[in-house]
Here is the input.
Amino acid sequence: MRVIVCGAGQVGVSIARQLALEGMDVVVVDQSATLAQRLGDSLDVQAITGHASDPEVLQLAGAEYADMIIAATVSDEVNMVACQVAHSLFGVTKKIARVRTQGYLSEKWKSMFARDHMPIDVIISPEAEVARAVVRRATSPGVFELIPLMDDLARLIGVRIGEDCPVINTPLRQLTALFPDLQITVLGISRGDKYFVPKSDDQIFPKDRVYFMVATQHVERAMAAFGHHEREARRALIIGGGNIGLRIGEALGAGSVAVRVVERDRIQAEHADQTLAGAIVINGDALDPEILEEAGASVSDTAIAVTNDDQTNILASLLAKRLGARRTIALINRASFSTLVSPLDIDVVVNPRDITISTILRHVRRGRVREVHSIGDGFGEVLELDALATSGIVNKTIGELAMPEGAIIGAILRNGVVEMPKPSTSIRESDRVVIFAEERVVRKIERLFEVRLEFF
Here is the structure.
């Protein structure tokens, strides 16, 4: 499979790296000769310097033989035109574009991306995806990760383990005996700087971060089992009134959460005030304790820092927590900062790059992949897949599958019912299966679900 990736920024590089590791033929196009050279030297990809929407450059990248183009440059217009050129001149089958300008994404103009106009198969809006991810975490107290799967009949949840957790020092195999009616599977554990897929004899310790799958109807009981009894958020403070902050404010306000917003730019603050009905908007610096106090940080259930500056988000979150906010969520773009803030008193870190990459990979994977989500800052991926009639896993029990080390089946959806897997559980045609896999074994999992040629 030949893929052209336009843009050698954080998203483009991460996508190129992942696809190259999976054995795909990857070509990266970027205007910066330095970035292109550095990428070509560090990864098994071809790097080309040039404008991504230039037909000559795309031809040099082998567009006439490409199966897919992923346009993720910093310019929406370049991304859109690159997809148009790839379609009109080279017949590229699948075209994915990252588009951030809200005007292009308006429902009013959705026909612009029809096949007869500007044929883009998948449009990725990072701001919309990030806002949804933040809202999920903000409305689910006690979690640092929450991903709905299987049409939200099951959820992947990440929680921190406190000293009062009832299952501390308990082997995971005993969880079923302790909670016989609880539909739950522990997928991964983060302990210090180490991430791992646990075995049945592994135990949970204080300060661990645990990822688990649970049937949605059992979420409250599962949270209690891990020592979390937090009340739902009723008052939210949003630091940053840009596009992401506005989306979050609209979603939380629609859910009966009292919203206050702090925005430094006066014009943007006025726009937020006009856009968010019922919200209180304060024009001021979120790093000023008096401004945060005026905005109600001391009585906020959740403080959400989503400015376009990582350092502001980190410092404002810490300041809001010190003033009395019960929980903080910070948007952090730079991967190097994500590791630095883990010891700090920030409850949830949201990385737009990981969210965007997960969304793009969902449309790149082979087989019947419904969902792909990266978790744990490169720890691994959660995949939701269909078990097709002629794939190698059908009519085999989980105990019979050659599951690679570093991968675990989290849940199975059959006839609308979520089941937690056991070694004796058999996978049937049309089942939907959630698997967590460390990055190094994702390709092996895909091979398990590939169909034989007679399927076609």
Observations:
- Residues 235-350 form a domain with the Rossmann fold fold (CATH 3.40.50.720).
- The two ends are 18 Å apart (CA to CA).
